[in-house]
Design brief:
The structure holds two protein chains of two kinds. Chain A contains nine helices and one strand; from the N terminus they run ααβααααααα. Chain A is mostly helical. Chain A has a domain at about 80-215: Cytochrome c-like domain (Cytochrome Bc1 Complex, Chain D, domain 2). Classes of the chains: A mainly alpha, B mainly alpha.
């Protein structure tokens, strides 16, 4: 009876100095980090603080450990469900326009004027090899050199090519459909690129005449 | 001069590319080596030393009594122990935040005004020059941030969480680019910052002179521009998230030799 209050007093005094015996729990640190992140940023141009509001996938993929299988499955299912298929089945656009988009890493920063899709690039070469003539390519994603050729796409509009064409559309629209914590932006889902732009990137990857497939 | 350097880079990259991909990085490393002979960061270091020793501000005193963690006026060795906890402010501070504290307390300058000043302008440019000078006095020393104080350990844990925090239009976190070994954006090598990336790499290279834009960048601007490219909103100068990230990167870099101020593409 006599000892207990004394111990509490000693301990709470020590908390201020060195955290007493117990350090903050992981949950307390999570809460502290959230609070620090919310307090540290401000709006600048088109980049507003609402970009810190995480959806399920962003939240679940914000750790050095992957999410639990059930969560990953939920993210993938949601992503697949979110995919908007091309109007009139126009999957394949112009590979030349696609190459231009693939080269551009622009868009959505606080120094960009507009958040419109027309102001955005595809950022593809930042992370992938595509046309072999372009030596300045990144390696965060796999090489996409000969993407269509190695998948035996000789005519993207043929029935036999349909599965790979649809797979590729999904990957570009919402990459989380196949990898819950994909490093690749969700170009369609996040409104970064419109249907036509995605169709142009599809052509770069799948059109037999594209430099990617030479 | 700058134009020639850029042309040189382009030529080096092209030649190297013609040989093989691996050689492209080698070519750029060669180019960087070539640049080290004349690093314009030296000019900022000299300006910083002058600012450190000169009586300035409403109180008309120098910064020579500034305590960067090694005791008042001790500059050598301070850089490789920052960010750390300071008892007088009651918080963890990085080099640039601490310099502003000294400019306020010793010289009577307006801290709120300084942190609002754009990079490269007015007193903010002075903070960068001072940071360059202070960092240069630890060149060749190895990073060894203290983690004894509860706030220092908390700063590390918060920084780690911030490092992996995904958000924005592109779902990027720091880890998207700096969480794995041997990756590149275009031809730019990306250090893995979840561990010690090696001597003079990552945290151990900033402040640095950027050849591509002719600017001197401290760690605060380095992190600021990373967040810009991450498509995040704007991090406040010396905001808690930037200092926590500094703690995370600095502690991870334990044992890495500092080459700051470095020179970058």
């Amino acid at each position: 009876m006599h000892m207990k209050p004394t111990l509490i007093a000693v301990c709470s005094g020590a908390v201020l100095l060195a955290g007493c015996a117990s350090s903050p729990s992981p949950a307390e640190l999570d809460a502290k980090a959230q609070q620090v992140i919310k307090a540290s940023f401000r709006d600048q141009g088109i980049a507003k603080t609402d970009r810190l509001n995480q959806d399920l996938a962003q939240k679940a993929c914000s750790s050095d450990k992957p999410p639990a299988d059930a969560v990953a499955d939920q993210i993938k299912a949601d992503a697949l469900y979110s995919v908007k298929w091309p109007t009139g089945g126009r999957y394949i656009g112009d590979w030349k326009a696609g190459e231009k988009l693939a080269q551009s890493g622009r868009g959505m920063t606080w120094t960009d004027e507009s958040a419109d899709t027309s102001a955005n690039g595809g950022n593809c070469y930042n992370c992938h090899q595509l046309d072999k003539a372009e030596i300045s390519y990144g390696t965060i994603g796999p090489s996409l050199w000969n993407y269509g050729k190695t998948r035996a796409v000789t005519d993207p509009s043929s029935a036999v090519s349909a599965p790979i064409v649809q797979y590729t559309w999904v990957k570009l629209w919402n990459s989380n459909a196949y990898a819950a914590c994909s490093n690749m932006p969700r170009f369609g889902h996040q409104g970064l690129l419109n249907e036509k732009q995605i169709a142009d990137l599809m052509a770069l990857l799948l059109d037999p005449k594209s430099p990617v497939n030479q | 001069m700058k134009r020639n350097l850029l042309l040189g880079l382009a030529a080096t990259a092209l030649c190297a590319g013609a040989l093989a991909q691996k050689s492209a990085a080698d070519g750029i490393a060669e180019y960087r080596k070539m640049l080290e002979d004349g690093n314009p960061a030296d000019l900022y270091e000299a300006k910083g030393e002058e600012l450190w020793k000169k009586a300035r501000g409403p109180k008309n005193v120098s910064l020579q009594a500034c305590d960067l963690g090694q005791g008042p006026g001790v500059v050598k060795g301070a850089f490789v122990t920052l960010p750390r906890y300071f008892a007088d402010t009651g918080r963890v501070q990085d080099l640039e935040d601490r310099l502003v504290t000294c400019m306020v307390t010793l010289q009577g300058l307006n801290g709120a005004e300084i942190v609002k000043t754009p990079f490269g302008k007015g007193e903010m440019a002075n903070v960068t020059a001072l940071a360059t000078y202070v960092a240069a006095q630890s060149r060749g020393l190895r990073f060894n941030l203290p983690q004894n104080h509860a706030q220092e350990r908390e700063s590390y844990e918060v920084g780690k969480r911030a490092f992996f925090f995904r958000g924005g239009s592109h779902d990027f976190s720091c880890a998207s680019c700096h969480g794995e070994e041997g990756k590149r954006i275009r031809l730019q090598d990306l250090p893995n910052l979840t561990k010690n990336p090696g001597d003079g790499i990552g945290f151990a290279a900033w402040p640095a002179y950027r050849v591509s834009n002719g600017q001197m960048w401290g760690m605060q601007l380095r992190l600021n521009d990373c967040y810009r490219q991450q498509r995040f909103p704007y991090p406040g100068f010396a905001s808690e998230v930037t200092i926590a990230l500094g703690t995370y990167l600095g502690v991870n870099a334990k044992g890495a030799e500092s080459i700051a101020p470095a020179i970058k593409r």
